Amino acid sequence: MKDKLKNAQIRAVQYWFIDGLAELGAGAFLLLLGAVFWVQGSLPRTSLGDVLFFLAILLGAYAIRWVIIKRKEAGTYLRSGYVKPQAGLRSPISTGLVVVVTVILLVGNLYLAYTRQPIMWMPLIGGFILAFIFIWTGQQVALPRLSIMGLLSLLSGGILSIRGMKDLRGMAILSVLTGLVLLISGILARRHYLRFNTLDLDAGRGGGSEG
Amino acid sequence: MPGEAGAVKGNRHFLEAVDRFLHEPSRSVIMAVLSAVDEADFRYLQNETGLTKGNLSVHLSKLEEAGYLEIEKTYRGKIPLTLCRIKPEGRQAFKNYRRVLQMFVESNETER
């Protein structure tokens, strides 16, 4: 009984990822990020350029999120129902972990800026950030495939840094590689989901005895 | 299995403390799902419980009457949607139910 209840809770928490759309969206976003990093690394840096790139990333993120939600409304919610995930962090450990990593990244950034060091470790730092996001999300929703993707990102970032792919070009390659892995994972998850969930337009409403 | 019977008898006070209203399997699954998310719709709960529409409606109505959850009937586009959310009272009741069940299982294992 206890396992049945626990499993039902885990399935509900994992539901956002069940149809593969979240991974497809994240993969598309990372490809966009990779393109932005590549262009940014190829052009001379100006403040206006930085602002435009930042806006492009922000708009891209919102656009992708909007497409995911619309696709879920048109497909997933009609096929297997609607679940709104719990907002915010669920445990004090998670909150503490997010705070600690954020502080480490801020201090690291300030150190690099203050000492004016070459940013040859940028892909490794990027890989670390991606790994943290994936592993943390994977732990929150009990999905090992996200944790594996996190480790792959960290490994890719490390290899790119060691091989001398520093700066924004290295970040671009890291983003594209991680984005492609996410797209493949998303396609596999989506194929599996569509195979086992059919469209039922009448199922969203409650039964007659509800009043 | 006299050992098992003795253990259950010895832990009768735990069994008496179990919320029998929530101990109904379908209701406990509904509460488990809703305690893990902000809200879920009728379709999702039907998939999880494996109940017919009529039976699920009855269970949801009873849980609503008990003050454990709230039901909102709305539309997404032209499609009717029944949304269910757990209330703080329901969350607390489910937490207590799980705790009593856990204590029963642990004390039963200790006595064996």
* Topology of chain B as a string of helices (H) and strands (E): HHHHEHHEEH
- Give the proportion of residues in helices of chain B: 55-70%
Give the oligomer, counting copies of the same chain as homo and different chains as hetero: heterodimer
State the low-pLDDT regions of chain A, or none.
Answer: 207-211
- Distance N terminus to C terminus of chain B? 11 Å
Beta-strand segment tally of chain B: 3
Helix-and-strand structural type of chain B: alpha+beta
Q: What share of residues are in beta strands of chain A?
A: under 5%
Percentage of residues in DSSP E strands of chain B: 15-25%
Question: How does the helix and strand content of chain A classify structurally?
Answer: mainly alpha
What does the secondary structure layout of this molecule look like, with pairings?
The complex is a heterodimer of chains A (211) and B (112).
Chain A: H1 2-14, H2 21-42, H3 47-80, E1 83-85, H4 92-115, H5 122-140, H6 144-162, H7 167-196
Helix pairs in contact in A: 2-3, 2-7, 5-6, 5-7, 6-7
Chain B: H1 2-10, H2 12-17, H3 20-23, H4 25-36, E1 37-41, H5 42-49, H6 53-65, E2 69-76, E3 79-86, H7 88-111
Antiparallel strand pairs in B: 1-3, 2-3
Helix pairs in contact in B: 1-7
3D structure, described in words:
The complex is a heterodimer of chains A (211) and B (112). Chain A has 211 residues and is mostly helical. In chain A, 76% of the residues lie in helices and 1% in strands. Chain A has seven helices and one strand; from the N terminus they run αααβαααα. In chain A, helix 2 packs antiparallel against helix 7. Chain A starts with a helix and ends in a 15-residue tail after the last helix. Chain B has 112 residues and is α+β, with helices and mostly antiparallel strands. In chain B, helix 1 (2-10) crosses helix 7. Chain B starts with a helix and ends with a helix. The longest helix of chain B is centred in the last third of the chain and has 24 residues, at 88-111. Chains A and B meet through helix 1, helix 3 and strand 1 of A and helix 4, strand 1, helix 5, helix 6 and strand 2 of B. Strand 1 of chain A pairs antiparallel with strand 1 of chain B.
